[in-house]
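Note to self: user wants both folds in one dump. Writing first protein now.
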Amino acid sequence: MEKTVVVGLSGGVDSSVAAYLLKEEGYNVIGLFMKNWHDESVTISAECPWLEDSNDAMIVAEKLGIPFQTVDLSEQYKERIVDYMFDEYKRGRTPNPDVLCNREIKFDVFMEIALSLGADYVATGHYCQKRISQTKAGEIYHLIAGADTNKDQSYFLCQLNQYQLSKALFPVGDLEKSEVRKIASENDLVTADKKDSQGLCFIGKVSLPDFLQQKLKAIPGDIIEVPAEDPRYIEYQKTETLHDMAAPYSYLPENGKVVGQHRGAHFFTIGQRKGLMVGGTPEPLFIIGTDVEKNIVYTGQGANHPGLFHKGLFIAEKDIHWIREDLSMNQGDIELFDVRIRYRQDLQKAQLHKVKSGLYIIFEESQKAISPGQFAAWYKNDELMGSGTIS
């Protein structure tokens, strides 16, 4: 009996080709477009990209001769993604809405709708691969990096679990982006030359600062520049305890001098260079810390300011997630993994130390701009093993 798969048609080329490939393989394919936003009180941008995207998705479905409908998930999206984002920014953290959207919306709410329509699987246009192995305990699902190393999107799926993976298909994961565009072009799909979407997951072109400013109030405060010669950096080089290697620097106003004013510490993130509006320094200023309680932004001159670099990070116990639950670490375990702390970052060699309160990740080389609220994901070879929110 043919299997039914619901494809999350986003109106982009990747999901269009995913639907085409599944149809060619003999699946019964249904196209579903997710509408994730219509809160007019927060203007997302002057254009309304979701209308254009849903229209493109519909044209692709017609071309492929597959049923198509739109589902409105804006209520769940607001509750699970947008409210969470604002809450994190308010606390001075930097969330990753794309990782959350995959965990909470595409492979949860959306997946439940798909399964209720009688689907066996849900497919997306992500550049990653799934493999299955048989063990005595049953099937194990492996999340593998995409074949196109330039486009690998496994990081965005770092919070998925075994059940979600069991129902997921990634039809373009073993292709290069150029091949995907070629397939779309050869089959006259309207999305063949469409630019990749930049912006919040399934919302479209969002300018994050504008978006945040409509919900979080601007509160003027000091921008303080901390010199690279600050003694704490020399002390830090000598630290050997896990806690000290992973602890963020804590600054006080007297550690530097006021060089300007900002519109609210919660609008800024560690490592950020743009948006400070402070000139006249020999090298550009980078954000090395924020204090949302006192509303102070701490900066340092130059891309190599020591305040930007850390040897380690910590993930609290409640925030540790294993995709490969069968390989999760026990208290006292130390293991080597390849780790990335942001999308498209080259994998970095690191030791994972499991302690009672959580997990320390200590890198071979100091890492730049480790931001609380972002996700660290760890790999063995090209398989994603687990992830966690940086504390």
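First done. Writing the second protein, which came from a different request thread.
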Amino acid sequence: MGANGSSPPLAPGVAARATAALIALRIAYAYNWFDIGPALRPIGVTFDVGPTQWGILVAAFLVSAGVFQVPAGFLARRYGSRSISLAGAGLLATGAAACGAAPTFAVLVALRLIAGVGAALFFSPAIGLVGSLYPPGHRGVPVGVFSSAFSVGSALGIVITALVLPTLGWQLSLVLGGVILGVPTVVSLVAVPASVGKAPVHDGAPRPTVPAALRYRGVWAVGIAFIGLEGATSSTAQFIVPWAETVHGWSTALAGVVGMMFVLPSFAGGPLGGPVAERHRNHRTQFLVATLVGVGVLALLPWVGLALAVVVGVVFAVCYGFVYAVMYVVPHYWREVPPGEIPLAIGLLNAVQLAGGAAVSAVFGAVVGATSYAVGWEVLVGMTVIFLVALVALPPTPTPSDGPPAAAAPARP
């Protein structure tokens, strides 16, 4: 380990196996974000709650997943990204499985809060961990694929839960999610070398009181700009099944398949967005175009039938998959952020997005409960566009002619 927190180069086979294990872990992690969506109506029947309370349940997970992102970054900075990310996956698996035993709705909300803490501890350290497996200039594809693996897990969480609910009930369906996550967590403990993802070795120079990652305005700009998109992706994925059942009268299985199309295609956005972000530095333009196209088609959702709903889902998912892949590559090129603080930078922008997105999800649920799904979708689109104004504060990304990115440069004291 160098003073900047970088690890010795890994053999290609070792890096590939570690990446594959972490991608599988990312898929199972995402499963446990979205298996709650198809269960909302049965949960409502069990505890006699409706869309407004469903929004609170969805928001609870996002709040804790957001609030603990920055502490996760600090912990990764202190103890290493490998140990913190895998501990977070274990906590999420435990909390998610425990939700199946919740005796009251209040306890269920509390358990989803605990599961969200595990999600926070896993995510940003895991992004830094994947990036540390590869040298600068070779991170775009693995980071992009890792980012997009979330869509696979989201889709599986929605469609598998919708299929097994009639047989297992919502309680055992949630337990199943925890078990699914526990397996790749154990595999990753073996497959990811202990030599990577260690805490940066401090060179003895005094550190700033406030880490650079928390002071850099690009982190805040990206975090605030995509509060609306975070709320839109979460609300859409969680509410698409009850919307399809309630508004269109589709079966739970068909609604689950439609819901899958709002998340699974985002996998294509990652392998596209990661390399584009690495080769072209007009990141503000990339963010704007992809987001506006995505929410532009989402605005059509209240007015379409089955076939066009699938088209809307595919376009929306690919667009936000592209956005998130760009988002997680860009911090590696911010010179103001030392390599050891990249998980902290990603943690902060995620904290802002998730905490704000939780509020957006709660607003969406309240609007649906008070008016209709049609009004809720349009309010969601409007909130997504409004927050994009924060991109004005995003500094231009340095070009290759400006020298090596921060991830390849010595750490600053």
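Dump finished. Worth passing along: The first helix runs from residue 12 to 34.
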